[in-house]
Structure formats: C-alpha cells, structure tokens
Amino acid sequence: xxxxxxxxxSQLAEEIRTNKIKKEEVxxxxxxxxxxxxxxxxxxxxxxxxxxxxxxxxSLSGLPIAIKDNICIKEKKVTCSSKILVxxxxxxNAEVIKRLKNxxxxxxxxxxxxxxxxxSSTENSCYGPTKNPWDITRVxxxxxGGSAAAVxxxxxxxxxxxxxxxxIRQPACLCGxxxxxPTYGRVSRFGLVxxxxxxxxxxxxxxxxxxxxxxxxxxxxxxxxxxTSAFIDxxxxxxxxxGNVKGLRIGIPKEYFSQGLNQEVxxxxxxxxxxxxxxxxxxxxxxxxxxxxxxxxxxxxxxxEASSNLQRFDGVRYGVRAKGESLEDLYxxxxxxxxxxxxxxxxxxxxYSLSSGYYDAYYLKALKARTLIRKDFDQAFxxxxxxxxxxxxxxxxxxxxxxxDPLSMYLSDIYxxxxxxxxxxxxxxxxxxxxxxxxIGVQLIGKEFDEFTLVKLGSAFQSCTDFxxxxxxxxxx
Length: 477
Ligand code: GLN
Fold this sequence. Notes:
Layout: H1 9-17, H2 23-41, E1 44-52, E2 64-68, H3 95-102, E3 106-111, H4 145-152, E4 159-163, H5 169-175, E5 178-181, E6 201-206, H6 209-219, E7 249-253, H7 263-278, E8 282-286, H8 294-309, H9 327-338, H10 341-354, H11 360-383, E9 386-390, H12 406-410, H13 417-422, E10 426-433, E11 439-446, H14 451-463
Parallel strand pairs: 2-3, 2-4, 7-8, 7-9
Antiparallel strand pairs: 1-3, 4-6, 5-6, 5-10, 9-11, 10-11
Helix pairs in contact: 4-5, 6-14, 8-10, 8-11
Glutamine binds at residues 117-120, 143, 163-167, 195, 302, 413.
C-alpha cells in the first residue's frame, strides 16, 4: 500500500482521480486507523461503517472527512457531545455538509468536542476527553479537539471544526495542525448548532495550507438560509499558494507577548517572525490597547448568547426528556440532568448578564468594549496587512490540570478570542516543538474577508519549513 500517511489530502485526491488508488481503499485505510487508534485517542464520537457519500466533482472528491459533532448531517446523530442530545438525529444537512457532498467528499464520522463547544480542552464532553496524539496524558485543546486530534494522528485526512473564541485554532495549535477560522459571514452557519451566534464560524482543520485552501474553496460563499452570510465573492484560494510575500506588512502587537506567555512558545513564534522577514515581509510593532478586556468581554457576550441559544433544549422539542410531575418539573429535570457543569455555568452567567437589573452593567458594557476591541484592529490594519501572534500561551497541558479552575481554562483563549469579537479571519499553524516534543503554533490574523493573504503567508511559511510534516509517533499501538 502506498504511503497514505505522508500524503496530503489534495495529493490523495489526485491519486484517486488518476486511478492510482480507489476511493474505497482510501476510506478503508483511514477506517482501519480509526479502529486501531481511536479506542485510546477517543477523537471520534461516531465513525460510520459506510460513509455518507457525496456525488459531485472537485479537487478533493473521493476523500473522507470528519465533522465536529455540532454540525448537522441528515439522518445521523448530532449530539454536541452533550447528554441532553445523545439520541438526537439531525433532520437536515448543514449548508457545509451539502457543499462537501456536492464536491464529492464522503463523511466518515463525527468528532468529539467540549459540550456545546464550551471549553478549551475537550474535557467537557459527555463522552470523556480526547487524548493528545503527541502525549496521551495531555489535552487536545478545545472545543474542536476531536477534529484536531483525528487529523494530527492521520485518522482522517482533514476535518471541520467550529470556532466561537478559538475552538478551531487552539486545538489545531496544541495538536500541530492547521486550523482556519474564516471571517464572520464567510461560511454559512445554517445547520451548525448555535453557541454564540454573533461569534460562531465553521472552518477547516488540515495538515497543510494546500488542503486548507482547497477546503475553503468548497465551504465558503453566500447562503440565503443564513441571514448573516456575506454577499462577497470568494476568490480561488489555491491561487494564494506559494505566492510572493515580499513587501507584506506584518504587525506584532506588543500586548500579545507579555506575561503569561511560555518562553518556548515565545521563542518559536519569534523564529516564525524571522522566517517571514527573510522572505521579504516587513515587521512592524503595533498596539492593540484593549486586549486586556478581551477575555472578560468575550465571556459575557458568549455566555449571554449561549444562555439564550440553549433555551430551546427544554426536554420537549429535542433530545432527552426527563420525567416530571408538572411541565416545569419536566423542564427542570431535563435540563438539570442533561446539561453538564460548564453548560450550566454559562447559562447562569449569561442569564445574569442579560437580566434587567444587570444588563447595563454587564451585557451592554461588554458590547461597548467589543466595539473598542474592533476599533483597535481597524487602527492596526491601517498600518499592516496581517497580525502575527502566538495562538496559545502554552503547549498542551495535562488532562485534569485546569478542569477544576474555569478561570485558568478561560485564559487559554487569550490570543484567539479578540478575532471572534471583531469578526476577523485567523489561522493557526505549526511553527515548532517544545523540549518535550509538543507542538507549538503561531497565529496570523487578517483583515475582514482577506483569508487570501493568510493562505499566502501560511503556505510561504510551509514551503520552507517541515513542522507540518511531523507526525506523532504512535507508541500506544
Ligand atoms: N474556549 C472558548 C470557550 O470556552 C471558545 C470556545 C469556542 O470557540 N467554541 O468559550
């Protein structure tokens, strides 16, 4: 059998097109890896014996893809890794699923996540945590941790995740793969179970920028079924591959390199900066002065929207229904038994911030802070084309290490959440390894709808580095 592990998805698709390999063989190859390794990693919630087949043609047709467990696939379970939805079957396809199928991709299964995408470690899943393929005593990041781990361990060529405050980028960073969050409005949210409706975006998790560009080509674009979907043309992202980055201005925000940033992470990000400089990009120091308010602002807005979005899970319309003497008991028992601790914490926090007595002091104030954070970026983008930062302040932490301290967990997203508040595109990609051989990632943030420049810079970086080619040594066989 050919070396399918060291071949990216786009090359694999080429081999299928030219009849060097059959798509059925590719499917059973990845399926057998899932069978072999996933009992330990637990990156999948469900992996199908028969793929959900696509029909059309594209540069990726014939390939299997994994989908985060909060994106609806018709007639398949969509559980958001929550007890309250464990038996819920989707009645329609999300727009992204429709597009993948029309592009001839085959869905191989659904991946583990923090319950309703609340978290940064995938420990909040009702199925238990996913383990990091680089060190199984460590977390994978979250909330799209299952997707990131499955791609890193090559249990699947690529996957989709969703990102509300970093949930594609942070797990991609901790697992050593590429995670791309498009501009708000670029990818349809139709059929994505809502967490924070003004923040959520679906995006690709891949091993490199070639696959990332090809997948973006398929999933991006206007959709009438999502009223926040943008009427903006989608470029061919593969045209950005291996482009010239000479003269591009890269901003380095000083606020992102201060205390709390692990030294090894800092060094690797500095090295990445040098590589761009060598390629002719110009490095410019900038300031995003309201960064210190981002975590607080995000957790008020995201929890407010989550508390409202989760109201629909009442035990009547979806999922698990608990017993109750009265209607109120039925609601209380279904929600009480169905939601995990973190979901309850967000509902409390959000309901409180939105309550009439505290609305002005919390929710309204957070909206004002959000505007200031967005204006910081507007100012910065007058001087630079993209912004370079670390993705996560640390490498993958130990499973259980932060589970009992929600505040320290919330700080894992310190570098990723501002971009969701501002609606901007951003990507994390591998830029090094720690002394313990754990992946380190760097983040590029772009102007609104300028995913193209991010792909250009990312692929230029990967054309002269090999970090993305490293595969975790699977010693748990
Ligand atoms: N970790 C952040 C949170 O817990 C972001 C999650 C996400 O992007 N879905 O809210």
